[in-house]
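Design job #97: recover the sequence.
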């Protein structure tokens, strides 16, 4: 079993868009209406939006490869790229998305550890993320990895308002 993490560049634009659509859709389509899913996917992962996100200096994307196949990706934000005002001492994990067939191989933990490593290298004091309140598996994973719920914010899936828990881990 070989696991490699590689930083994404603009050359990865189309691949990043495809994996974003696939992983988000596979994870959340069963709990949301097709109309809201389609509206969100089109807004969040259209080519122009993904290209814009890739060009933000304070955002970084990383592919994770499992036995030479792209299995998922990580998106982290610092400074003003964070989706909530958490200050310069914080790093946000905006996305850890793993393709269905590669789940349960520890890849989420590899990506989470990559984010923690980046935060430590940049002298950040905490790492945080938002996770849908109904995503029980992800919440359990983050708790196991030392995150605690510190708040909540609204997330819109199409026209439906949903609640994301904000979970934080203080770094030593």
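Job complete. Output follows.
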């Amino acid at each position: 079993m070989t696991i490699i993490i590689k930083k994404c560049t603009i050359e990865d634009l189309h691949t990043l868009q495809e994996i974003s659509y696939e992983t988000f859709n596979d994870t959340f389509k069963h709990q949301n209406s097709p109309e809201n899913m389609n509206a969100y996917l089109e807004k969040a992962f259209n080519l122009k939006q993904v290209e814009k996100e890739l060009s933000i200096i304070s955002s970084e994307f990383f592919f994770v490869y499992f036995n030479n196949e792209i299995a998922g990706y990580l998106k982290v934000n610092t400074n003003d790229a964070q989706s909530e005002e958490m200050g310069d001492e914080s790093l946000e994990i905006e996305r850890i998305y793993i393709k269905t067939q590669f789940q349960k191989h520890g890849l989420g933990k590899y990506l989470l550890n990559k984010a923690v490593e980046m935060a430590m290298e940049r002298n950040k004091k905490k790492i945080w993320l938002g996770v849908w309140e109904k995503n029980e598996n992800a919440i359990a994973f983050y708790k196991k990895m030392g995150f605690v719920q510190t708040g909540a914010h609204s997330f819109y899936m199409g026209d439906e308002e949903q609640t994301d828990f904000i979970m934080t881990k203080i770094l030593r």
